[in-house]
Task: inverse folding
């Protein structure tokens, strides 16, 4: 029995030592703050909002034109034409939105990797999942993102 307890204790000590040896440094960031204060993201979302406003004005303008058409056949033709144009415009805005959001995500990921390497962090998590401990790197990520690249 003594031999079993001794082996069990030795294994527990080795396991605990292994855990502390593999424990890395954790960073965390407020990614909502990062996105809201990232200058490229601000510009991108303003551009997307502007395109959505244009789309809304287009629809309102076409609704006014539609009301002035009296012939049912002309209304039908006009409606079909506007639907095609609207679909093309919506796809263009959606494509722009997707492209800009991908660029933002890629830039934030590159910033996280760079900050993690510079600070010798094994991982960077969203601050919402870290209850205690870790290193706040939100401002470091923002600084990386908002510094002009050469």
Result:
């Amino acid at each position: 029995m003594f031999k079993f307890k001794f082996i069990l204790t030795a294994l527990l000590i080795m396991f605990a030592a292994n855990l502390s040896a593999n424990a890395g440094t954790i960073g965390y960031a407020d990614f909502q703050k990062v996105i809201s204060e990232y200058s490229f993201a601000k510009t991108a979302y303003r551009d997307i909002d502007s395109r959505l406003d244009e789309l809304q004005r287009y629809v309102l303008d076409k609704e006014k034109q539609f009301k002035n058409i009296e012939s049912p056949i002309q209304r039908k033709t006009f409606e079909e034409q506007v639907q095609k144009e609207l679909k093309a415009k919506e796809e263009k805005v959606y494509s722009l939105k997707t492209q800009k959001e991908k660029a933002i995500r890629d830039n934030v990921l590159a910033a996280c990797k760079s900050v993690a390497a510079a600070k010798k962090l094994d991982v960077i998590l969203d601050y919402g999942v870290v209850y205690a401990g870790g290193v706040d790197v939100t401002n470091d990520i923002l600084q990386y993102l908002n510094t002009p690249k050469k």
